[in-house]
Amino acid sequence: MPTHVTGRAAPFPLSNIDTDVIMPKRFLRTITREGLADGVLADLRFDTEGNENPDFVLHRPAFRGAEILVVGDNFGCGSSREHAVWGLKQLGIKAIIGTSFAGIFYDNARKNLLVLASISPSARDAVLQAIAEQPLDVAIDLDQKQVRWDDQSVPITIDQATQRALVEEREDVSDTLSLNAQIREFEAKRPNKLVVRVPK
User: Fold this and answer.
1) pTM, to two decimals
2) Deepest in the core among 2, 141, 147, 199, taking most CB within 10 A?
3) How does pLDDT run across 73-115, given as a tens digit for each residue?
4) For 115-136, how does the pLDDT look when each residue is reduced to its tens digit (9 = 90+)?
5) Domain boundaries in the chain?
6) DSSP secondary structure string, the chain?
């Protein structure tokens, strides 16, 4: 992943959007990751007959195709379903800017290379105000740890492990596979049988 993520930003300032809202349970029936984009925020994006809600931000002409969401506090709270992150990525969302993210959602995003940029409430509100006035491309600089738009910039709070994972496109499976030789060496040194001693 490049150190810069740039895209049209859309305002979605609702607080406490949980993973049940991001990916309703009726979309979890699939045994693959395919088709999950249809489920993302489905109860907000569509009416009961499946028609687009024209008032939903991503259906407005100015924000259709936006790749970055600017969200309210505590985004991604609730259950641990990783489908929420898979669906957001399938929908074309490359990054989310907010003040705080639920821990499990944050970890799932890192593992799937969805950038979550944590900024201060005042900085988030400044971004929301800017994109509400006119559609803007916003840049997230993972190297410099900044969110930038127009001539403005604000700092990102991100831990080193997450920053490295995103920039180097590292996720748990590939990290484990990269240690395959060491794992095999360790297993070869272990006894064939595990002896369990039960106290008398």
Assistant:
1) 0.84
2) 147
3) 999 999 888 999 999 999 999 999 999 999 999 999 999 999 9
4) 999 999 999 999 999 998 788 9
5) 4-189
6) --SEEEEEEEEE--S--BHHHHS-GGG---SSSTTGGGGTTHHHHB-TTS-B-TTSGGGSTTTTT--EEEE-SSBTBS---THHHHHHHHTT--EEEES-B-HHHHHHHHHTT-EEEE--HHHHHHHHHHHHHS--EEEEETTTTEEEETTEEEE-B--HHHHHHHHTT--HHHHHHHTHHHHHHHHHHS-SS---PPP-
